[in-house]
Amino acid sequence: MIQSHQKRRLKDELQMKKIPENAHYLGASLFSSGRRTRDFSFLQDKLEARLKVGICNTLDAATRWFWWNPKKDKGGFLAWKAWEQLCCLRIHGGLGFRSAKKSNKAFIAKITWMVASKRISLCLVALRNRSKYASNTWKAVKRMKSLINKGACFLVGDGVLINVWRDPWIPWLSNFNPNPKNESIPIGPRVVTTLIDVTTNFWNLTLLSELFDANSIEAILKIMLPASPQEDRLIWVVDPKGKFSVKSAFKLSQSPIMADPVVDWSTLWKLKIHDRLKMFI
């Protein structure tokens, strides 16, 4: 047992600070009180605090409150329309409010796009060094893969890196993939460069007719091949310039909820009437 005066002497000579009894290291208590329920009660408090309401939910709640009840600080309010419907695009019958949850997903999708397009970025380097691939951050990035698949498509250069059947490379077709001519066509490892006639620098029409159906051939012929060999690169077809943006990813994630496809909402918003009447309709 070390005496108190010896502790003070060591502390003064080594210039050390006394650690409080409730100190934690890596989430666990440094000193055990003999009651594990009390020592680890802070974990339950943090978990319950996160489950009650998240930051995104708080932001959405504040926006809803301001929209439906802007003149009062307390009390309830009557919501005439569901929040999900108000967050729809105006062309789908909503008001175009940005849901905090979907906005957050759009920002995460930007990181997913950077990974998919193999972009060299200091942000990615820092993220890889800071977080492990099994962390919640990388799991969230992986979950956005389905959203990226809706707008990511290869721009054909030399066709060396693009798998004909697996990779997206035809923007005019569903899922950006061609359809085989019939079920007997082997769907194996074939790259796009094998479909190009090197002598004419044009598509091999004979091979195309053997492999794909008429709709796929028509769509493939719309793809202009570069005059000089270039590398294949991933582009964002949602944007006319092929560049990814958080705004376009957010719009792509928006799906019309209970929207009437017969109603021409763009005509409604162009009517020369009071905005309140438009919202009432």
From TrEMBL:
**What name does this protein carry?**
Reverse transcriptase zinc-binding domain-containing protein
